[in-house]
Specification:
Family: Belongs to the RutC family.
CATH topology: 60s Ribosomal Protein L30, Chain: A
Strand order of the largest sheet: 3-4-5-8-6-7
Helix content: 10-25%
Distance between the termini: 46 Å
Number of strands: 8
Structural class: alpha+beta
Number of helices: 3
Subunit structure: Homotrimer.
Strand content: 25-35%
Oligomer: single chain
GO molecular function: deaminase activity
Length: about 170
């Protein structure tokens, strides 16, 4: 029996290396398997998206998967936030794109987004701006979840995070 707090090397290795299986909600034929080693995880940082406002990074490159942090609708050049949901949606998506592109991928490689909105009554307007963004980039629509939240950082109306796949 081991002494409490004395984790064996097998236990430690279990946390250092694990396999991640991601199945896209768009097309279940494609399964991506990424092996995550702590040494392989690469931080993504770009000046084209706003700096993290807390203890997190803009995104992480796991080799075949790119995972962005939630992107607020802050213009990285001016540090301003638009007032309306359409402009905020577009800016959040531009920030997501900047992180994904820094990893060498494009908007077309995004397979899943999660949209956090402050008011679902603005869904139609948000959805129109979201649709136009992907159409302008000639990218397929990714799988998406959309949830209403009580509050978002900096009292913005929207935050969007994404997962992209390196094919």
């Amino acid at each position: 029996m081991r002494a409490p707090g004395n984790a064996g090397s097998t236990s430690l290795n279990r946390f250092r290396k694990r396999s991640i299986i991601y199945r896209s909600g768009i097309n279940m034929k494609h399964t991506v398997k990424a092996t995550l080693n702590t040494e392989e995880k690469r931080t993504i940082k770009t000046e084209r998206a706003p700096e993290a406002i807390g203890a997190y990074i803009q995104g992480v490159d796991l080799g075949s998967l790119i995972i962005t942090s939630g992107q607020l609708p802050i213009d990285a050049k001016t540090n301003t936030i638009a007032d309306d949901i359409a402009a905020q949606t577009r800016q959040s998506l531009e920030n997501v794109a900047a992180v994904v592109e820094k990893a060498g991928l494009s908007v077309a490689d995004i397979v899943k987004t999660t949209v956090f909105v402050k008011d679902l009554n603005e869904f139609v307007t948000m959805n129109t701006a979201y649709r136009l963004f992907f159409e302008e980039h000639q990218a397929p629509f990714p799988a998406r979840s959309c949830v209403e939240v009580a509050r978002l950082p900096k009292d913005v109306k929207i935050e969007i995070e994404a997962i992209a796949v390196r094919r």
